[in-house]
Design a protein that fits this description.
Elements (H helix, E strand, L loop, with lengths): L21 H4 L5 H5 L8 H22 L4 H12 L6 H19 L6 E9 L8 E10 L2 E7 L13 H14 L7 E8 L4 E8 H21 L20 H5 L19 H11 L2 H17 L21 H10 L15 H8 L1 H9 L32
Parallel strand pairs: 3-4
Antiparallel strand pairs: 1-2, 2-3, 4-5
Helix pairs in contact: 3-4, 3-5, 12-13
Pfam family, one: DUF2800
Protein name: DUF2800 domain-containing protein
Organism: Sporolactobacillus kofuensis
Length: 393
Amino acid sequence: MTAVKEIDHAHRSHALLGASGAHKWLNCTPSARLEEQFPDTTSEYAKEGTLAHEIAELKLRKYFIEPMSSRTYNTRMNKFKRDEHYDDEMDKHTDTYLEYLKELSMSRPNAPFVTIEQRMDYSDYAPGGFGTADCIMIEGDTLFLNDFKYGKGVPVSAENNPQMMLYALGALKKYGILYPIEQVHLAIIQPRLDNISEWVFRREDLVIWGKNLVKPKAALADAGEGEFVPGDHCRFCRAKAQCRAYAGQFTALQDFGAPVKKPALLTDEEIGKVINIGQHLDNWIKAVKEYALSQCLAGNEIPGWKAVEGRGSRNYVDQDKAFAYLTEHGIDENILYDRVPLTVPKVEKLLKKKQYDELLVVPGLVEKTQGKPTLAPAKDKRQAITSATQDFS
């Protein structure tokens, strides 16, 4: 085992060809330099994720790296609990991450080498490339790369995950001489979606991927060259509001093939193309509007649009004082409050999983209704259904 310096998650440095953005610059090589023109803003979701990673690091450090007294641990943990983004769910989900790693460690024949929050340098494949790996274990001939993701948007797969694979290239460079690594085990732990994705592959395949795919793509990306290729990877691109290539896929929805006379109705194949393109339309329009608003507020002109003051809201200066004043003047206090029962998910969050199961699930006091049919991409892991296989009446 080894000790490492604690990471300031909120102020990490980022490489132009960073691992977290690899899905962008590997698919659309000019995007890396294009994004340099835009500020790297931080959302509330990102701040929440940063705090969750800091808590996770503390728990891993205590178990694997740096034995500490309960007093020291609680002092550090209480500091995190005072953060405005903290809630009890964060404690539960980081425990899930820790339990996975504990089980992984104990399942190995020998105690593995463990390191956390280590900077991985993969600049041999991508100029200036580096990133920070959440947790690395090495035992026998296997390199275990584990990534904690706190997001709850969509499940993330470890299979062919470029971010994790770049970390693995960096780990081979750092530890390959010390350990006889022959295979790589990637794991993404995403507790809020109950998603644990694992993938195992050979060291040889990783190196071939790095040399044959990453190196040439990274060279183009570093030079700002190559073709703009819009796709799912555009979702988190800072340039998407102004990117002409990204806009093109939405402003030409009617173009499905060669310019020949076509029937009045779209075919099922064309319908699939419309959905595939249109599913990103809302996010694109939102990004464009946010950019236009920022320009108007900066005093720049967006033809046909202007910034105005939105609709405000009314709030009590002091709710207790206001209600006391109302009751003093004859208003019945009961009509000032709504008594609303908590939903099942809120009760589960309040009681915690074990107590919720004991008091509601086991006695049969809650039921799960059949979900309403919804469209999903063909690669979605859920089983396909038809009217013949399900009763939706």
